[in-house]
Amino acid sequence: MTSRSILSRLRWLIIGLMLLILVPLGIFSFRKTLNEIDELSDGRLAQAARTLDVLVQHVGIAALARGSDEHLSVPINAVRNNALTVQGHTYESEVGYQVFDAHGSTILATENMAALPPPAGAGDAETFHDVQAGRHLWRVYMLTDTDAGVTIRVGERYDSRHDITHALWIEHGLPPLLLLPLLALLIGWAVRRGLRPLETLTNALSAREPGSRELIVLDDAPREIAPVVNALNTQIASIENALERERRFSADVAHELRTPLASTMINLENAMALAKGAEADLAIRSAHECLESLARRTEQLLALARLESGAAAGPRVALDMVDVVRDTLDDITPLIATGHVELSVTSLPDHVPLVGYGAALGAMLRNLLENALRHVPAGGHVGLSVTQDADTVTLEVVDDGPGIAPERREHVFTRFHREPGSGGDGLGLGLSIVQRAAWFHGATIELLDSPHGQGLRVRVRIPKSAHAG
Questions:
Q1: Do 304 and 328 lie in a common domain?
Q2: Which residues contact 214 (CB under 8 A, 6 or more apart)?
Q3: pLDDT given for residue 387 in this prediction
Q4: Final residue belonging to a domain, choices 110, 135, 168
Q5: Average pLDDT, the chain
Q6: Which of 170, 358, 442, 452 places its Cα 20 to 30 Å from the Cα of 463?
């Protein structure tokens, strides 16, 4: 199925609408004109009959019968043989009249109507009717003058009226039909000229260099095109920003992964060179720790990439926050065991219903707990509590680590940001993942002082059925 251009659609739509309007209007006008012609012709017949009646009254029946009149210099019956010619067209065979006496005998008649039978019986004083004579149909007006004792019948052939109809059709109908192709060309030109701003916009888009942030500007853009241009500029800016973020992200990932990979290679090379002994064991353990660090960083990068690409922005589902907490605790059990830090769940209801994205909530809780566990020294404590009310689920993770100064707390959500002097070997993505997951649920994050005197309290309020922020 071939799609047509806007130019073609508009051209044929305009032509179709014009035909839809003009054809019924033309038919209506044509019929009305025909009715007016018929009324005018009938009126002419009636006028001719009355004129002939006056003439009959003036001349008299006897004079008509003799074919002459002492008061006229021209014989009356001479009218039978004279043809009326107008602009080279003879109307004698198309218009005629008959005069009958009171007994129905023909007194006077034109040759073309002489064969028409006399009227049957007495009728109305004035009537219009149709009479068939041979192969011609006549429109006849009959006038009965009882005082003069005559009946006058004046007629006109219908083909004479049809000649007028044909002339009207040729004169008024044929030119528009002949001019229709020219009209289509003119409409196409007008539509093409009206769509020129779209062509200008297409050329401007085609001429843009990849990565350009220059706005599209159309001089004298129509009001209908201006919103399209503004929307395109907005979308182009958004796409360029997204691409820039991806480029920065790729560069940061390459930089951050380079260090643990290089350390792992060095340790493994040392272990292979030493072959055995305590130093070889130490090199292998160091390589293993570097690989664990690399694995953690890769997992965080993948989690952030999934959130950024909108993988969690699929359909929301009904879930239980208690299940999310339990699954997350199972995932970080090895970290709890090796960190020598106490993790306690101070509050966890039996059932916490929530509508959201399970993967995003799990990533958020896992990174909150991992950040706390890595920044708390051995022997420290991390507490987790989950509470709820009618509309909100509240998560709190409290630790007794070094904490974050109040004036620095708004900076820790920046990607790859790590506080100076902080412990642990994190990548600086944990709180960025938390913030992104919270955004998907319209949640709020607060960084507060720990109730233990030192450390940090992270509070996340999640609406049970909220939209993304």
A1: no
A2: 208
A3: 92
A4: 168
A5: 75
A6: 452
